[in-house]
Amino acid sequence: MSTKKIGSQTVKLEHPPKIIATTSVVGPKEGQGPLKDSFDIILQDDTNGKDSYEKAESSIMYTAISETIKKANLSESDIDYLLAGDLLNQIISSNYAARDLKIPFFGLYGACSTMAESLSLASLLMDGGYADYIIASTSSHFSSAERQFRFPLEYGSQRAEASQWTVTGAGAMLLGKEGNYPSVTHVTTGIVKDYGITSADNMGAAMAPAAVDTIYKHLEDTGRTPDYYDVICTGDLGLVGKKITTDLLKEYGYDVSKVYEDCGAIIFDNEKQETKSGGSGCGCSAVVNCGYYYKKLMKGEISKMLLLSTGALMSPTSSLQGESIPGIAHAVSIEFI
Amino acid sequence: MSTKKIGSQTVKLEHPPKIIATTSVVGPKEGQGPLKDSFDIILQDDTNGKDSYEKAESSIMYTAISETIKKANLSESDIDYLLAGDLLNQIISSNYAARDLKIPFFGLYGACSTMAESLSLASLLMDGGYADYIIASTSSHFSSAERQFRFPLEYGSQRAEASQWTVTGAGAMLLGKEGNYPSVTHVTTGIVKDYGITSADNMGAAMAPAAVDTIYKHLEDTGRTPDYYDVICTGDLGLVGKKITTDLLKEYGYDVSKVYEDCGAIIFDNEKQETKSGGSGCGCSAVVNCGYYYKKLMKGEISKMLLLSTGALMSPTSSLQGESIPGIAHAVSIEFI
Where does the source fall among the domains of life (chains A, B) (predicted)? Predict the structure, then answer.
């Protein structure tokens, strides 16, 4: 085992980088939900003035990144690396956002796990001494995701009870070295898990085993118990996946019920906003963490959180070819130290 | 500027990881080309016994990775991280290969730059002390790529002169710390470049400016001249892109003509095999580097090479929406030290 790893899947950072600025940009529907006061920018128009939903999504990721750089009084040339990914085929939201930013760029694909994946790699690169500043970012858009993964909106398809509503939004986090900000202290990298779920209307159930596995490994590797954290928050399991995760972790001997939350479960008023099992998409974990939880950390309302994002690693093609939906989850400890 | 960076985009590794094993798996057509003797596994059937081209592609990536682990007399549980990506929507080749390997997994998307992208990140993570062993891998498949990016093969579309032939193949590299193997000494991370090319039949021209930019930055950052290297090899610019790259670098004051090669230009006999401007796809750079060049390094025929892979960061959707094709290139110095 290498020196900086503790346990099988976790790295304890020796020089924990600080999250010195974040930006959350959301669409109009997210801006009417219960977390509306915690988002930085709420769009009045989910096309953001662009002529396609895909271009809109790319533009909101660009906005999240460029606003974050501005908040820290930096310029693009100060940023050593940009790590970003999104849900669209060939991650075009990230690629076209990166085109307009002259920053060395690593493109990622981890489906809805991308906020934790980008933050994990960014934290390791910072800790290793390869950068002074790194941006981690991701996005999703309800209308670009629906037509790519399910049906064109114009079909007016009925939504299943376990289905989730892809968040329109983008988040960006800027890592630096100085100041009174929360630090990334541990990175637990996930293994792909597949329990045979085949329905794209039940992503929460497909991703829950991955979340359970990564939370379990994180707690085992660090020797921590769930109550070490003020919050353990998964990305977008929604109401169905959240319940499965809580129940399965109990079977593994961990009762997370007092500290466990899920970004997908809280971003919408699921009854009133008719979002069924809750929010989903890379943007869900991104905006709830860059908006709601980062503000709670900065206000001192919480001081230790375990941020997880969970990804369903399927494609419409793999589903049509009869494949089940594998999931992955990455976890990052964020603490004031 | 952070300590380990030299110049604007390059890291000089303090503990250069070694490439202790590689595997190249290719399809029947690649196995009839001029580099056939340098590949580890040549498939007799490009479906690899699977019932879809996508499943075939995933299975050959799995083969490349698992054979590489075997060659080093290791098991999956010895590998700290797997970094992999491919061309398919939602990188399903990599995701389903990772599902069958119980290794902490970071999914990447860099289009055909993925061999250099995965090797770059793997090298930084190794150098930083986060792992004893990491696998970097990528794949492509002619038949899964054609139907996703251009036309179903059944249409029998004519091929343009500047078009390239997507390589069916997968490569995997295993990084370790010990032994008489070539090391990764420098990592130069690319910036997205877009010169306004819009034709998916001319990817070489779209990607060449990115290759030029990254080679130029690498030489400026390290203070090296092209003749420091025995070979500077780009991934899949093909004949058209190779010429543009050579000419543009001359304008920037660097004559690379004596040491410059392109994997896409040499993998096929372009006249006899009717591959027009040459090979392309993530697999092109992967199999030529994991096969042909790695064997040359191990035999002592070359001792210093600059490996670049170049990616065209478009999607069929972005092309239909009128977007041009941005490119990116990452470079990795591989040397016996």
Answer: Bacteria
